[in-house]
From TrEMBL:
It is found in: Golgi apparatus membrane. It comes from the Eukaryota. It is a peripheral membrane protein. Residues 71-214 form the Conserved oligomeric Golgi complex subunit 3 N-terminal domain. The lineage of its organism: Eukaryota, Viridiplantae, Chlorophyta, core chlorophytes, Trebouxiophyceae. One of its GO terms (cellular component) is Golgi transport complex. Residues 267-578 form the Conserved oligomeric Golgi complex subunit 3 C-terminal domain. One of its GO terms (biological process) is Golgi organization. This is Conserved oligomeric Golgi complex subunit 3. InterPro entries: COG3_C (IPR048685), COG3_N (IPR048320), COG_su3 (IPR007265), Cullin_repeat-like_dom_sf (IPR016159). Residues 227-248 are annotated as: Disordered. Its main location: Golgi. Keywords: Golgi apparatus, Membrane, Protein transport, Transport.
Length: 747
């Protein structure tokens, strides 16, 4: 209920306003813009005022609430206006961009066209520049002709200058270019002119090399003359005219020539020559050698080497000849050793000097041959007149040993390629000495073996062996004495043959030795056969056989170590089948003769020696067998003949034959027993006298024992089969046991 009292109503209205104000404060709203007194200050008197106040309050709240949205709407309108304005500007900007894009396309098209034109012009310019450079480069080779020719004609182009080799190299390039492009105009004419200049340049080089070499040679020769003069001055007070007498000073061309000392040769001939020639030639020759693949430079290098060899030969030849002549006063082996050693030293020094001037040249290809061949021939010319007169095989074999083993194998092999130019001359010298040795060996065989005339003491067998066995030293075992005694029993041709073969074995080639050995052994065997027949006539046939066996055994034993083929093949022409053709031709008939046949005959002296030894042993065995059991052999032969006759015409029995009577058998057995006890021991003693080797004696006596035992066995078999036991008992035949014991005791 409303209080009717004015005070109460006013209080209530004020309280309500406070409540509304608090409510607005809570909600965060403020009433703004109300004309008149503030709603908080309004005094409500009645309900109409309250309602009006409430209405105003509601309106104020509504106004306050809508004002935010109006402000926001106004802001949005402002933003919309700004956006529209921006859109207008963007559209205007896009239109400007489209205009710029169109203009850019136009500018780009024009720029691209301009760039392409520029690039085309630049490419054309580069092509023109390249063409001009190529044309200039090609013309440069042709333009060099005038420049190089002017230098040649002006005399500026000297070989000693530093520009000579580069200009020569440029000239080579021009010649190569012009020759490889013959399609160019006037290329043939330019090529001819270039080659003419090139020939002049090479001729200048050749003349320069010759000039420097000869100048260096003159300096060395002057130094040699000065050294000889000083050496002669020092020797004259000591030796006087005696030096000329012993060959140290010789007159030639009116001037006394004194050999240089060995130490001075190196200093003058090599060090002095190198110092004089090196400054002017070292670089020039190196440049020529670097271009040696071209044929003209190869020929120039060959000419320079030839000039070098000629100059060096003029310096060294006389000194080398003097040195070899000085060695020639020594014995031949010393001359050979000293001469080879000196020439090897010269070869080494010349090889080193040659490699110094021509380092890229191959000195082994024969470049030094014009120099080294004449120098090495000096030794050959000094040796040949001496060894060609030698008669002794020992001296010739000594020379072969020196050259073949000491010089060729040891010294040349140790010093290498530097001394290779000396090898051909030494091989030729060795071949000549071996040829002389072969000739002397053939003469030696003919004189000492084939033509040997034995003396009485050479054929005094068996007395010679008996005297040797009876010497007091024979009982003392001494290997040296035994070897000497063995040599004394050798027949002289056998000894000379073996001595000759032992010397020749390592001194001649295998084929030559085989031919000489075959000839020597065949001749020796024939000579020994003749001596055996002479011994048989002087003493007995058995002595001759044993002598032949002994000498043949010695010969076979001593030639066994030689690793050689003792055979030769003889070739002859056989015309025997052409006799009929010749007979028809002589008779006037047409005949076509064939070619003669080539007959080859192999002669092996070692096999022939074996055959001869075997045949001689068989003859000796049969001779001893006959000497011992000859009655038995004759009886067995007769028995065989009787049995053959009885098989054809049966008749009397064997023991009824006159030659087979028991009495005759008894006589035969007695004779054989006496031979076994007397003659066979004498033969065995003689065998031991001739054949000292027990093994040889046993081998030779074995078939004799077999023959004797077989003869006794056949007789015993006949006694058992053809005779009665009483008749067989009367025959004093040696039993097999006794015979074996007797024969074994003789061995």
């Amino acid at each position: 209920m409303v209080d009717a009292r004015p005070g109460a109503l006013a209080l209530s209205g004020r309280a309500f306003c406070w409540a509304a104000a608090e409510l607005m404060a809570v909600e965060g709203h403020a009433v703004l813009g109300v004309d008149g007194p503030s709603l908080e200050e309004v005094v409500l008197q009645n309900s109409s005022q309250f309602y009006r106040w409430h209405t105003e309050l509601e309106a104020a709240r509504t106004l306050e609430t809508e004002q935010k949205y109006r402000n926001y709407a106004d802001a949005l309108k402002g933003h919309l206006t700004s956006c529209n304005h921006l859109l207008e500007k963007v559209d205007s900007t896009l239109q400007g961009f489209d205009t710029l894009k169109t203009q850019h396309r136009n500018v780009s098209a024009k720029t691209r066209a301009l760039h392409e034109s520029c690039e085309r012009l630049v490419d054309e310019k580069e092509r023109l520049v390249e063409f001009a450079e190529a044309l200039r480069a090609k013309l440069a080779y042709f333009d060099e002709l005038e420049r190089i020719a002017s230098q040649f004609h002006s005399g500026v182009m000297a070989v000693d200058s530093d520009h000579f080799l580069p200009i020569l190299h440029r000239l080579d390039e021009c010649i190569t270019y012009v020759a490889s492009n013959p399609q160019y105009a006037d290329s043939t004419a330019y090529a001819g002119k270039f080659r003419q200049l090139h020939g002049r340049a090479l001729a200048t080089v050749r003349a320069k090399v010759q000039q420097v070499m000869r100048h260096a040679s003159e300096q060395v020769q002057a130094a040699i003359v000065e050294a000889k003069a000083s050496s002669s001055g020092r020797r004259k007070p000591e030796g006087g005219s005696g030096a000329a007498a012993n060959g140290l000073v010789r007159s030639g061309s009116g001037n006394a020539k004194v050999p240089l000392a060995e130490g001075a040769e190196t200093a003058l001939l090599y060090v002095r020559f190198r110092a004089a020639a090196e400054p002017g030639l070292k670089g020039l020759l190196a440049g020529v050698a670097a271009r040696a693949k071209r044929p003209e430079y190869a020929q120039l290098l060959t000419d320079c080497q030839r000039v070098y060899c000629e100059v060096r030969l003029g310096l060294v030849a006389e000194i080398t000849a003097d040195r070899i002549a000085e060695y020639a006063r020594e014995p031949l082996p010393s001359l050979t050793r000293s001469g080879c050693s000196y020439l090897m030293q010269v070869c080494q020094m010349e090889h080193q000097l040659f490699e110094h001037f021509f380092p890229e040249s191959d000195s082994d290809s024969g470049a030094l041959a014009p120099l080294m061949d004449p120098l090495c021939t000096v030794l050959y010319d000094a040796l040949r007149p001496v060894f060609i007169q030698l008669q002794s095989l020992d001296e010739l074999c000594g020379l072969v040993d020196i050259l073949q083993h000491e010089v060729l194998e040891e010294q040349l092999g140790r010093r290498g390629d530097a001394v290779a130019p000396l090898r051909p001359v030494l091989l030729r010298t060795l071949a000549d000495i071996q040829e002389r040795l072969t000739f002397r060996a053939q003469a030696f065989i003919k004189e000492e073996v084939t033509g040997f005339q034995p003396k009485a003491e050479d054929l005094d067998y068996p007395n010679k062996l008996v005297r040797l066995a009876e010497q007091p030293d024979a009982a003392v075992p001494d290997s040296h004495a035994d070897s000497l005694n063995a040599y004394t029993t050798w027949y002289p041709p056998v000894q000379q043959t073996l001595l000759c073969l032992s010397k020749l074995y390592r001194c001649v080639e295998a084929k030559v030795f085989a031919g000489l050995a075959q000839d020597a052994v065949s001749s020796c065997a024939a000579t020994v056969q003749m001596a055996a027949r002479a011994v048989g006539r002087r003493s007995s046939s058995m002595d001759g056989q044993l002598f032949l066996i002994k000498q043949l055994l010695i010969l076979r034993e001593q030639i066994a170590p030689f690793e050689a083929d003792f055979s030769v093949t003889e070739k002859d022409l056989d015309f025997t089948h052409m006799r009929d053709h010749l007979r028809r031709i002589l008779a006037g008939m047409l005949s076509l003769p064939g070619a003669p046949r080539l007959m080859e005959n192999l002669i092996d002296s070692k096999k022939e020696l074996e055959k001869l030894l075997k045949a001689t042993c068989e003859v000796f065995i049969m001779a001893v067998t006959k000497l011992t059991v000859e009655p038995m052999l004759s009886f067995i032969t007769k028995v065989t003949a009787v049995r053959v006759a009885s098989s054809l015409n049966p008749g009397r029995r064997l023991r009824e034959q006159a030659f087979a009577a028991p009495e005759r058998l008894e006589e035969m057995a007695v004779r054989v027993r006496e031979a076994l006890q007397k003659e066979l021991p004498a033969v065995v003693a003689k065998m031991r006298l001739y054949l000292n080797n027990p093994a040889t004696h046993a081998i030779l006596f074995k078939p004799i024992k077999s023959n004797i035992a077989e003869a006794h066995g056949q007789i015993a078999s006949l006694l058992e089969s053809e005779y009665t036991p009483e008749e067989a008992a009367r025959v004093p035949l040696t039993s097999p046991q006794q015979l074996a014991a007797l024969l074994d005791s003789l061995c």
